[in-house]
Amino acid sequence: MTDGNETNLMTQASEIMTLSGQLSYRERIALLPGSTATVSLEDVSRADAPSTMIASETIELGNRQVPVPFQLVVDDGQLYERSRYSLRATISGPDGALAWTTDTAMPVEKGSGDRDFGMITLVSARGSAGSKATGETAYVCGDARIRVAASAESTAVTFDGRQMTLPRVPSASGEKYESGTAGSPEYAMLWLRGDRAQFQWGSRRFPECERQAL
Q: How many domains does the chain fold into?
């Protein structure tokens, strides 16, 4: 027989899951001293909004190189049965600039328990000589016009005379590119789905975009 305190402890323990694995990449490029790795679990349920961070771990790498082991502790009680969640991992340089990122969805379900993702291969967030661009496309988003040059790893978005390269991030559907922290002036997000797209720059969220001829 257990008392109330023991029951609460058992309930709390059952709600904790640990997501683990190692981060690496194929290119033979050394990480700069002072780089950082970040692993996060994100809610990617809503197609019309930026992903929401559920849990995150930042690893100061110092002079370490890949592979980088990680363990992300998640409170399962914060997850919902009908929502979709994905693990995301990045490595940034000492200046904070994104260098490597995951580009495929890694689903996590409520109640799935501890999980070892094994070796997770990141891709360059800055593109590479081997990446194949899909060509430039124009979209009209309300009264704004953007030009998009996407590849398998990232996309270059030109808007209002400015250009930003966004790394590809996991998404429940379509092709999603995102950079910065949602709500910050540096944030940018582009979500492509066929002939339509969603675009956000800083705090400004544009109407649904439609592909147009160049």
A: 2
